[in-house]
Amino acid sequence: MSYRTIFDEAVSEVPPSSIDLDRVISRQRRRLRLRRLAVIGTAAVAAGAIMVGVAVTGGHQQTAPPAVPNPTVRIPPPGQNQVFTPTDRAIFEAMSRVAPDLEWIRQDGAWEGGVVWGSGASTRGYTPDGYMGQGRVRAGDRFGYLTLGIPLDWGALRSCSPREVKEARCATRTGPAGETIQTSSTRNPHGRLGRSPTGFTMTHSVWVQRPDGVVLNVRITGEDEDPPLTEAQLTALVLDPAVAEVAADPLRGDARVRKQLINSWVLAAIQRQAPGVTGAEGEGPVFTANDLGAGWSDRGAETRNTTDTYWGYGRVMVKRVAGLLSVDIRRRDAAPAGDLVCGESTPTRVCAAGAGPRGERHRTITTRDAGGVATQREIDVRRGDGMWLRVTLAANATGRFPLTATQQLGIALDPTVTLPGR
Question: Which of 131, 168, 234, 336 is the most exposed place for a label (fewest CB within 10 A)?
Fold first, then answer.
């Protein structure tokens, strides 16, 4: 789910954007390749707030020095197999200063190993487009739902409309380091837990745009009309030095986002080479088409996704022909492919070697069974920078491939199919 989708669901009217989103996403993707990134699933957003503004990032980060770690920082109990990222921990540290009495608590009915603070990347298509964290909190007998987002590319904050000024107390001011700070508060019909004696809840929302273009938004929706955090505390949270330190690169340090980013490059390369390609699910000669990324996975070999390696696979289908495609990328490790020479071909193994447009060396090996039916096509590429790739495609039961050899080689030679910087 993308930030645009999230906000469309959360508000009745989305402020117009003055930017070319496709161009921005393309620019951000190029910039993200230089970052250490990672991924998790998208965090859902509680509805009801009147949200103002959109965000775009750029330039170089100029922030206050990182805050000294506080031994009294309260960290939510992690869910099963959950690992908190640097951005998560910065938020926990800042919150311990801003609201020392605040507690992180489980959702009503949540099981003991469930997530208290859920966070990760939202996505646009297959590509991570921002950080979002969310969880239930309490201060004394006041309960609420906290959401903090850091979109990567969105647009500039706009002025409060007269309706927002009247109905949401929308106000804009300048922060201590030149930030644009926009606050609003809305009274909303209670739609979920029924805790409010009046039937209404209160939502406080704060948007901050820094001089370097980084935008943060934070919101607290109370379970009655007295949320556990004030507008002033929300503002202090997103301006805190610990959060400021991570905000320009909020997805750094999350291995899951890093894998998701590479997945997005691989899937985009497949779609460029074979427009109309879909995913495929099912067994036997008949497959059902589905979203290309829905079945793309590293299940069974998760440890092969590291800083210097990547592996993903999924069934692809073109014109009702389906086959299993896998992509293996390694940084400066060509051992699996050897020296990319062919040797003599045989009836069950046909090999062809060549050079790519950027000086890459590549080799294509097609294997056949004893009856001459094709079973697999494997393409190895060694790039000039030492990067090694293997793109393997299985044929269907009749020996047909969903992609041509040229399309498969195009994926292997695509320079965007790579590993991000460490």
Answer: 336
